[in-house]
Amino acid sequence: MTTSMTKPNNHLFKDITVLIVGLGGYTQGSGVSAAQFFARNGADVIISDIKTKTQLRENVKQLKDFKNITFDLGKKHDISLVDQADVVFQNPGVPDLNDVITRAFIKEVPVINDWTLFFLHPKANCIAVTGTRGKSTTTSLLHAIVKEKHTDAKLAGNIGVSPLQFLETYKGELVVAELSSWLLRGLRLVKKSPKLAIVTNIMNDHQNMYSSMKAYINDKKEIFKYQTNKNTTVLNYDDPKTRAMGKSTKGKVVWVSLKKIPDGSNGIYVDNGMIVYRDKGKIKKIVREGEYPLFGEHNTQNIMFATAAALSINTPLKSIQKVIKKFKGITYRLEHIRRWKGMDFYNDATATTPDAMIAAISAFIEKRDVVLIAGGMDKELDYTKWAKVAAGHTKSIILIPGSATDKMRKAIKPYGYRPIYAKNLKGAMKCAMSIAQKGDNIVFSPGGASFNGFKNEFDRGDQFNKIVLNLR
Known about the structure:
There is one protein chain. By secondary structure, the protein is of the alpha/beta class. It has three domains: 10-112, NAD(P)-binding Rossmann-like Domain (Rossmann fold), CATH 3.40.50.720; 116-324, UDP-N-acetylmuramoyl-L-alanine:D-glutamate ligase, CATH 3.40.1190.10; 335-469, Protein-Tyrosine Phosphatase, Chain A, CATH 3.90.190. Helix content is 32%, strand content 20%. It contains 16 helices and 20 strands. The strands form three sheets. Strands 7-8-6-9-10-11-12-13-14 form a nine-stranded mixed beta sheet, with helices on both faces. Strands 15-16-20-17-18-19 form a six-stranded mixed beta sheet, covered by helices on one side. Helix 2 (57-62) links the parallel strand 2 and strand 3. The chain is globular and about 65 Å long.
């Protein structure tokens, strides 16, 4: 049976069967939020996850009181479960190439996620940010800015909570969301995009989850694919891939550039050290570079994305400037943890790509004072460019185990650079302490995924912080 998905109606899910593919480990994430939402609203819920009950115990515990939830855990997804389902809910970590998802497509069973349901709401009011890098900082800063005017604005998506945490009581409040390529897949069925969409950049990532780079980019394009000429798309002019998107969107294009934007266009750029915004030929001075706590060229771009978006919805300039000058960044994004014995410790645990590591190293590029701790699991990415930057601008590199670690070692070998190897994060810090001196920066920027020895990237960040804060 195929279920009609035309409007959000709690009664729509009564007595139907929902198959959730991937419960996930985040306690307010898509999987567990969907299970709670559907179970509360009368659906029979089946949860399938390759992880065991023990591995998922925190989220399983949240669901223990629901009698209409059954679990199929700790083994390969059973594709026959699709035959029992009226709707399949796809967790963001589950690729389209998954056998269960493929079978659902073939059987024409609706495949949805939490953002499918959000955009079905008649009062859906959303600003969304996507991109390979910078989206979390941009989203958090933008949310802080808009809250100056819209005090009830919500933070959701990858950086916040699932919209299913608040959808049942939602009345049209502004939602600022970070949407990964996986979450954006949920817009296909409803054919709706946010009224204001931001794409920070497109870099090689998640190629272990996609059949091609083109497929990854196509998912990103969902963020503006269904916009109209009454909507706005903020794009990175410095990135050829996002610059090309300017020809695809129907929304008004607002460019972001660290250099210059085309004559006659609207957008934000840097002019002699001053960030300025141009709209219909009129110039607004925003803030001078360096007059804010965030550092690094990538963070200047993040500030510009958030500012361009905020100005597009008529946020007062003074409110924007106020927030920019006090915003210190977010957890695990090149976050300063501690200064100890004249050394500074930075946690960049969410850096899972070589481009992310390059951004971290580049933030300190004026001096060769970085002791880099890196390593993790491979996402089928190329570390050649990273190796050149790392070899020229780090004092030492300490690698922890992982398949990406092997690729880093091979990439940097032609430069005559010999990394140090540690058995784990604690051992890596011990090595770093034997190398670093007063004035050095110890930077944890893994450059690989976290699924070897850590629950997720946030657990990885927590473990690093604990080690740093316990230094005596």
